[in-house]
Design a protein that fits this description.
It is found in: Cell envelope. InterPro entries: SBP_3_CS (IPR018313), Solute-binding_3/MltF_N (IPR001638). The protein is α/β, with parallel strands linked by helices. Helices cover 30% and strands 26% of the residues.
């Protein structure tokens, strides 16, 4: 989840490892939806493509497969949206903090990097919402951990994420205020390292974005499982220039995919259906 922390743009999960898992089967039978395509700006209609700025890696949403191709849940959904609009998506790798300025400058048509739609970001760009993500803890299978009573426990996070900068420190302060031991936060540079530490029993739990945790559980061969429910949910959005008709076109396209079932099929392919939405909106920030 891309959130604002300490006034800076922070991506809450960015594993630097490439994935060696098998390719996910693509959803078939996605046709152009003329009603949505008609809303595209003329420049994009004429170019026949969507130029998408993306920061990687962030499994399972956007990352590189062993061949170096950019893949992921976000990629599959954007490919489907582009096809619905009669376009082809072209992905350009970017550092996260440069995506929104590049949207404003016209370098990219769309910013796609698991970006949380926030009121502050809406001052700079518009967002078309397409997913709902929160934080989710995981534990070793059969070794239950209560996120609300984890004082003294070792909890892995990815460094600089909202879990690292906000969530665990807040929980830890509460522990200390109650006279209990602080949470032993274990930050890792890569999400994959945090997940591995949990599977090896080097920590008691981990906290990450809900789709990241869901994907880690799916890939763990039963070694880890969810601990508690998803919390602090907020919408992911695709960033477009303020006032651009592209936002409405994207909204119409993703809503069409929601209504015909293709959207849910894509979320299920990646094991992230818990965050599926039923209605896409423009600028759906709650805070």
């Amino acid at each position: 989840m891309c959130v604002l922390a300490g006034g800076a743009l922070v991506l809450t999960g960015c594993s630097n490892s490439e994935d060696d898992s098998p390719a996910v089967a693509k959803v078939q039978g996605i046709d152009k939806f003329d009603t949505a395509a008609a809303q595209l700006p003329d420049k994009i209609k004429q170019s026949g493509k969507l130029v998408v700025g993306v920061n990687i890696p962030y499994q399972p949403n956007e990352y590189k497969d062993p061949s170096g191709k950019i893949v992921g849940f976000d990629v599959d959904l954007m490919d489907a949206v582009a096809a619905t609009l009669g376009l082809k998506a072209e992905y350009l790798e970017s550092s996260f903090e440069k995506i929104i300025p590049a949207i404003q400058a016209g370098t990219y048509d769309v910013g796609m990097s698991s970006i949380t739609d926030s009121k502050e970001r809406e001052q700079s760009v518009d967002f078309t919402t397409y997913f709902n993500a929160g934080s989710q803890w995981a534990q070793q299978s059969g070794k239950p951990i209560d996120p609300d009573n984890a004082c003294g426990k070792r909890v892995a996070v990815q460094a600089t994420t909202v879990q690292d900068t906000d969530e665990i420190p807040t929980r830890s302060k509460k522990c200390e205020a109650e006279g209990k031991p602080a949470i032993d936060k274990k930050p890792f540079d890569e999400q994959s390292a945090a997940t591995n530490a949990l599977m090896l029993g080097q920590v008691d739990a981990m906290s990450a974005d809900s789709p990241v945790t869901a994907y880690a559980i799916k890939k763990s061969d039963g070694k880890i499982e969810a601990a508690g429910k998803v919390f602090d949910s907020a919408p992911y959005g695709w960033a477009v220039p303020k006032g651009s008709a592209l936002g409405k076109a994207l909204q119409a396209a993703v809503q069409h995919l929601i209504d015909n079932g293709k959207y849910l099929e894509i979320t299920k392919n990646w094991g992230v259906q818990e965050g599926a939405i039923t209605k896409s909106v423009i600028n759906g920030a709650e805070s």
